[in-house]
Write a structure and sequence with these properties.
Length: 343
């Protein structure tokens, strides 16, 4: 995969935001936990510009050990207090590496009841540096931690920053592409370097205008296009990446009702089984929590729609509804317990 092959291996090859690297390194190296306003670093920027990559490169360069909390963890107050907080008093590993806690996607923690408040508690008491990563610096979800953060805002890499990478890829891989198409590719990427690499590898450069045509579509419209057998596969690829975090769930929710309407029941079951196999492969890849596998996750999600054709209402994922209900019940239970103790 191009995302792996052309992944920067050192800070000098990191694309864009060079002005943010040295302040970040300085904060990390002089961290002693005494300054309450900078006990945590908050790295923010749009999706795909390399926030997690930058953290990984800096920690490896200076030989730190990363303790990572991803969005896929069951993040709540109990998890933070019982699992993470005990680790914050251990400054070094047995091999002598200094520990650092890295928390990804904290702006996506709206449903993780008690997570942010317990994270604030951990920041106050930590004996090791904490690094938080988010897309939306101004999300209300992360407002409680801002008073304790050293702010590192990453901007979208400029065309000047990205062009050397594109030139290197098209030269090495012998890809024929005009300057105007490179311009269009950068414009539609919105600074997402992974998107650029995936588009170059999969030959979707000629479909640059597709993104503009569906930019205003909501997730239900785009999912309907995924299920529509008249939608070109290259268009489906571009559509998928518009909401790649929710499209797999929407496809899973709707694939049975969208299966091609054939008279032969055995053939219909065969089509359903085909979609199930693709979604199973997608789920196995997704469980690896490796962003380099995202193109394969996209491929299998799209594959699951190829035996389908739906033009009509798309159902919202029941899975997300159950999570919302579970979180609501958890909040009500905690509120009831607190009231009971007060009485």
């Amino acid at each position: 995969m191009f995302t792996t092959k052309y992944r920067p291996t050192n800070l000098s090859n990191f694309i864009g935001n060079q002005q943010a690297i040295q302040p970040f390194i300085k904060w990390l190296l002089i961290w002693d936990g005494k300054n309450k306003k900078t006990k945590c670093a908050l790295i923010s920027g749009v999706n795909g510009i390399g926030k997690s990559l930058l953290v990984d490169l800096i920690l490896k360069k200076h030989d730190y050990h990363m303790i990572h909390i991803s969005i896929d963890e069951d993040r709540d107050k109990d998890y933070m207090i019982n699992t993470i907080k005990p680790l914050l008093g251990s400054k070094r590993t047995f091999s002598g590496q200094e520990n650092v806690l890295v928390v990804s996607d904290i702006d996506s923690s709206g449903g993780d009841y008690g997570f942010i408040s317990s994270l604030v508690e951990c920041i106050k008491e930590t004996q090791i540096p904490i690094i938080c990563i988010c897309d939306d610096r101004y999300s209300q979800n992360i407002k409680p931690i801002l008073a304790y953060c050293f702010d590192i805002k990453l901007s979208k890499p400029s065309y000047k920053d990205v062009y050397p990478l594109i030139y290197k890829v098209v030269t090495t891989e012998k890809i024929k592409i005009s300057k105007s198409k490179v311009d269009k590719l950068y414009e539609q990427s919105n600074g997402d370097i992974r998107y650029i690499l995936n588009a170059l590898q999969l030959g979707n450069i000629d479909k640059c205008d597709t993104q503009k045509n569906i930019q205003s579509s909501n997730i239900f419209d785009t999912t309907e296009k995924l299920f529509n057998m008249d939608t070109d596969l290259n268009d489906k690829w571009n559509i998928y990446w518009m909401s790649h975090d929710i499209h797999p769930l929407l496809v899973h929710e709707n694939y049975i009702g969208s299966t091609l309407n054939v008279r032969d029941e055995a053939k219909k079951l065969e089509n359903i089984a085909y979609s199930i196999d693709a979604l199973s492969d997608m789920d196995l890849l997704d469980a690896q929590f490796d962003f380099q596998l995202e193109p394969y996750i996209a491929f299998n999600t799209i594959k699951a729609t190829t035996k389908c054709n739906k033009k009509g209402q798309i159902k919202f994922p029941q899975f997300l509804g159950r999570i919302s209900t579970a979180n609501k019940n958890k909040r009500e239970k905690l509120d009831y317990t607190q009231v009971k103790f007060k009485i």
